[in-house]
Amino acid sequence: MDSQSSWTHVHEQNRKAWDRLVDQRNRFARPASDQDCHDPLAAVDGLGWLGGNIEGKELLCLAAGGGRQSAIYASAGARVTVVDISPGMLELDREVARERRLDIHVVEASMDDLRGLTAQSFDIVIHPVSTCYVPDVVRVFQQVARVLKGGGVYISQHKSPVSLQATIKPGDGGYVIQSPYYSKQAVPKVSGTSLREEGCLEFVHRWEEIIGGMCRCGFVIEDLVEPMHAKPESPRGEFGHRAQFIAPYLRIKARRREQAVTPSSDSNHGELWLPQ
Fold this sequence. Notes:
Number of domains: 1
Number of helices: 9
Shape: globular
Order of helices and strands: HHHEHEHEEHEHHEHE
Distance between the termini: 46 Å
Largest sheet: 7 strands, mixed
Helix content: 25-40%
CATH class: Alpha Beta
């Protein structure tokens, strides 16, 4: 299978998987509640990274269908475009827009191919956990850098590399690394856990690819947090128990440089820009 066929296979499998998850009313396919929309930024920006006011901002919800993200940010006054690969997830955005009388622009596309969006057209890009569903995360960052205005904010959340590498349940010696770090193959499929989405192909992205990739695509990283999910009282093997040893997610605030850069296609390392 050539590279293009492989990418198409990944996209198609994940599109179908997410459409099935919509039918199953997965937790990520539940539209925003009245409470979410009453105080929208409190629901999604507890860290204050958006500065408390996004009225009139052009905002892209990337790989964020499902009727929650788009409705919350539109309720906060942003002009929202939502991109997702799953028609089923996007239909939830259309439904919530009609019900709440919100102006939400819906685009069916993959996060690593945003050619249908105009360059430098967004002030903010919000990107919930989803980069694990594409083989090459740097391609995603290149696309975001293209559509984001200079000085624009990119807030993204990712599954941590070690969380995707490690076993879901502990053995006698605890949680074990089972997937190689330097691999372009999808990690083994699992079911029955909130750490993974059943039926989806997921990929480990190295720290170099996530952090270095952002920097080389023209972003300055302003903050990074690992949201706390550890619960000492959780039974062995449950989500909260595993999170005591392995942080499941990381959240990054980055800002696009006024002059974006594109890494060389024939090099693993571009010029790394550092603030003076």
